[in-house]
Specification:
The protein has 173 residues and is an all-alpha fold. It has one domain. The protein has 2 helices and no strands. It has helices at residues 3-78, 86-157. It is rod-shaped and about 115 Å long. The chain starts with a helix and ends in a 16-residue tail after the last helix.
Length: 173
Amino acid sequence: MAPSLIAIIGAGIGAGGEISKGIEAKRQAEAQADVAEFNARVAQRDADAQRQAAAFKQRRQAKAGAAASGRLLAQLGASGVVPGEGAPLLLEAGQVAESELETLLIGREGEIRAQRFETQAALDIGQADIFRLRGKKALQQGFIKAGTSFGTSLLTGFGGGTSRGTSRGTPSG
């Protein structure tokens, strides 16, 4: 085989290897992006579940608060006190306010937990985008390296990589 043919074959193999590396890096990045997107979907489902759970707990709390208020009114009525006046009225209003505050607090805590999951979902989507961009760049880099490797190998194989004209003398002054 002629040295130039060997150089061309070697250059082709080297270029193919670089392209193969780029393709594999892109595949890995795509797989990582898929995992990040899956995690984002899970986090979004968790956010939805937190909201649903908080709404359920709020309904339960509202019912429990109404029942407690009803018991308080019944106890006041049984004791012979007029519930809608003076201290009994303040006691009843305090009970209702406390129950409503607890209901609102349950909803707020659920929303905070849901927002944490949504933030994680957004971060996961961003990470997936980064992985995909890295994969695209790795593939491009593989093609660039392949071209560079192929060109350099050809130049070297045909004697183009040797230094020519470097024996110039320095001008005398």
